[in-house]
Amino acid sequence: MQPGTLTPTLGTVPRVTLKTVADRVGVSAMTVSNAFSRPDQLSAALRERILTVAAELGYVGPDPAARTLARGATGTVGILLTESPQHAFYDEYTIAFLAAITQELAGAGLALTLLPSGRAGDVVPARDVAMDGAIAYSCRPGVDGVDWLRKRRLPLVFVDQQPERGHTSINVDDRAAAAAAARHVVDLGHRRVALVTVGREVTDPDTAPSDYMVARQRMRGWLDVLEPAGIEPVVRRSDYDNPEAGAAALRDLLDGPDRPTAALCFSDALASAVVRVAEDAGLRVPHDLSVVGFDDTPLARRMRPALTTVHQDAGEKGRLAAAELAAAVARHRAGEEPVVRRLELPTELVVRESTAPPPA
Amino acid sequence: MQPGTLTPTLGTVPRVTLKTVADRVGVSAMTVSNAFSRPDQLSAALRERILTVAAELGYVGPDPAARTLARGATGTVGILLTESPQHAFYDEYTIAFLAAITQELAGAGLALTLLPSGRAGDVVPARDVAMDGAIAYSCRPGVDGVDWLRKRRLPLVFVDQQPERGHTSINVDDRAAAAAAARHVVDLGHRRVALVTVGREVTDPDTAPSDYMVARQRMRGWLDVLEPAGIEPVVRRSDYDNPEAGAAALRDLLDGPDRPTAALCFSDALASAVVRVAEDAGLRVPHDLSVVGFDDTPLARRMRPALTTVHQDAGEKGRLAAAELAAAVARHRAGEEPVVRRLELPTELVVRESTAPPPA
DNA sequence: CTAAAGTTCTGGAGCGCTACAGAAGGAGAC
DNA sequence: GTCTCCTTCTGTAGCGCTCCAGAACTTTAG
User: Which distant-in-sequence residues (6+ apart) come within 8 Å of A198 by Cβ?
Assistant: First the structure.
């Protein structure tokens, strides 16, 4: 069955194309094409006439698929999300990031396609979806979606993951930021510290390239401060998308006299869950337990007590990622050399009410 | 410049296509196509050989754009979001909905493209992005994105907005659900009630087709109960994406002796903001002010006091929307008659701790 | 009044792929 | 040994559009 002759059972309705309109008006197909896509190439009067006839025939405009093939551009970029795409939706930080991207891309006339990094049957979105470029966001190294994108030689921007040569990347200095958080609690006098993070169990933060780079770097940053201070932290982990579980894993630690007096958390979402668990265990934050988050999402300010956390600007990250990608796509189209940048956005420790000196 | 001859400044690198591989292996282009797309059409040995040569040449697979044109299917569906797409990201309810959609679509081998409903320059995503179908989510009637989608005769599913003939729609009975919430506070004895909602100012909930249908229906449902009870509510509104503002607008009402003793809110997000404003004003929830939300997002259960709210299943809505659309796309491709359904998911009032009888 | 410089429109040649019908060759049935 | 059927492979003919070079005609300059 030909695409144009769909609905055979309903009687083959011949599709209305440029040609249909052209024949009806009595001009060439090219002129109709120009009427829609390059108005300056024909007289206003003729254009008006063409548009009228097109409307009568129910011709909406050039078929996007055909136009894509002919022009070599789709008007769409993809974003490759960690594992199941739905994981991406569970944290205000990611949400704000995505919101900023869509916003910025819209300004460039680009739509955003969410690419699940897995495969469904024989469809691999990263390989099979037409697009002009893509953002790889916080993917584990080795996720094969990234591999496909690379092989396709698409303009790529990496965010919150290991930079790769030849592609622009955007990150914050997670290690230094985490170290600042750790220093804060050490300076307050804490000696028993819990680290609540995401991802896989790894002893040595320097190895384990199979894990999210961001989680690794933050772990490294915490240890950069804790180890020299002679503090051996307890570590609890959970899945990326399930902060409750990570916090729950902390529960058993909260009873004994040797319980941690401070918890450094991978994200605000995780910190929020930790506070809830602590309070349910009868502990007061920050009096009995200091809690530090990461990201400084709106949640951090809403919480009671307001959360001490590491600020980073998710919106700015998203805007930058989108802008860099849009620029890369434009350069790619123009046949220019790619411009590779290593962008690092600033972070700042924001001390609020969830941290205090340890109980006496 | 031909798409194939990009990068003229870098020297025209001839693109590797099916043909390139075919010539190299010494078979027809069709056979190479089959090697990638219909493995059962050729011997395993030849296929292996073709794949090897393709890999050597750096041929990744059939070009998605060309395949789209030839096959008449893109492997992508769109979702048209309210106004700026970023508005969609501000509420856990919408997030859960989107997450479920991507999840379900991934299973059907479809990717999801976020369509800003506006236009950027001369690009109108709803008109210019290649896709096999679309979900229109909570769009104002008359948003021209929907118009383009309709004109393109794409399979469409409408969610949380006015159903249209010829297209499947998914909703809850917002009116009845809101009425149940209103009845709850009236039954508790409240006589001074505030309604905190989103969208435009309208006196008569029956008119104003320019506003979100959902907001209109909930308003109507509240009034269905309040008016017969002789209660004249005060109404406060905010933008869809800014619950804080809506709550803040309530602030001035909270002081006098005639202040409302109950607030019915359009969403949990809004209710949460209202609780914060009330507490900042020195009122206790629910003792001084009862608050009811809508949606029953995870937030409702996390809140202290836990929020009384109307439960609806955002995940189920998303899954259903995706499944219905995928089915509609498949039927469309097969040339079958569309199956139009009017789906209505159940709701349930969940009474938690944020509502109580009014202060004596 | 002629040459040069627009303006407006057209034809042909792709873009890279897949559907379809059919050719070529080999296996199996009788 | 012949006929049929199956497997494997191949040309052709698009899909609907846009690029490019140039034709036809009109205006401007000298």
Answer: A212, A215, A237, A238, A239, A240, A246, A266, A267, A270
What confidence score (pLDDT) does residue A30 get?
95
**Residue that finishes a domain, picked among A53, A71, A89:** A71
Q: Is residue B256 part of a domain?
A: yes
CA A78 to chain centre: 11
Query: Does one domain contain both B15 and B96?
Result: no
The winner for highest mean pLDDT among A109-118, B99-108, B221-230 is: B221-230
For residue A88, what pLDDT is reported? Answer: 59
Residues A196 and A161 in one domain: no
Per-residue pLDDT of chain A (360 residues; tens, 9 = 90+): 334 343 333 445 678 999 999 999 999 999 999 999 999 999 999 999 999 999 999 999 999 999 999 999 999 999 998 755 555 566 788 888 988 998 899 889 999 999 887 777 788 999 999 999 999 998 877 778 899 999 999 999 999 999 999 999 999 999 999 999 999 999 999 999 999 998 776 555 555 555 688 999 999 999 999 999 999 999 998 876 677 777 788 888 898 889 999 999 999 989 999 999 999 899 999 999 999 999 999 889 988 899 999 999 999 999 999 999 999 999 998 888 999 999 999 999 999 999 999 998
Q: Do A4 and B72 touch (CB under 8 A)?
A: yes
Identify whether residues A192 and A304 lie together within a single domain: yes
Round and report the angstrom distance from CA (A131) to C1' (C19): 25
Answer whether A113 sits within 8 Å of B113, measured CB to CB: yes
Cβ separation of B76 and A113 shorter than 8 Å? Answer: yes
Together in a domain, A257 and A154: no
Closest CB to B130: pick one of A2, A68, A107: A68
Instruction: Mark yes or no for CB contact A3/B102 under 8 Å.
Output: no
Which of B188 and B280 is assigned the larger pLDDT?
A: B188
Which residues in chain A have their CB less than 8 angstroms from residue B100's CB? Answer: 86
- Domain residue limits at B282: 174-312
Q: Compute the distance between CA of residue B194 and CA of residue A106 in angstroms, rounded to an integer.
A: 37
Q: Are residues B32 and B50 both part of a single domain?
A: yes
CATH number at residue A10: 1.10.260.40
CB atoms under 10 Å from CB of A284, counted, come to 12
User: Residue B285: inside a domain, yes or no?
Assistant: yes
CA distance A115 to A136: 10
Measured between beta carbons, the chain B residues lying within 8 angstroms of A115 are 111
Is A71 close to B3, i.e. CB distance below 8 A?
A: yes
Cα of A261 to nearest chain B Cα, Å: 24
Regarding whether B180 and B301 lie in a shared domain, the answer is yes
Contact B171, B211 (CB under 8 A): no
Instruction: Indicate which CATH number applies to the domain containing A271.
Output: 3.40.50.2300
Query: What pLDDT is attached to residue B3?
Result: 40
CB count within 10 Å of CB A256 equals 8
Q: How many domains does chain B have?
A: 3
What nucleotides of chain D have any atom within 7 angstroms of a protein Cβ? 7-12, 14-20
Residues B203 and B295 in one domain: yes
CA B20 to C1' D21, whole Å: 28
- B76 interaction partners in chain A (CB closer than 8 Å): 113, 129-130
Residue that wins the pLDDT comparison between A66 and B2: A66
Distance (Å) from CA B330 to C1' D16?
22
Overall average pLDDT of the B64-87 stretch: 85
> Are residues B201 and B163 part of one domain?
no
Q: For A102, which of B6, B86, B96 is closest by C-beta distance?
A: B86
B32: helix, strand or coil:
helix
CA angle B124, B129, B135 (to 5 degrees): 95
How far A235 CA sits from the closest chain B CA (Å)? 25
Computed on alpha carbons and rounded to an integer, the radius of gyration of chain B in Å comes to 27
Cβ within 8 Å, pair B107-A114: no
Chain A closest-CA separation from residue B239 CA (Å): 16
Residue B331's CB is within 10 A of a number of other CB atoms, namely 14
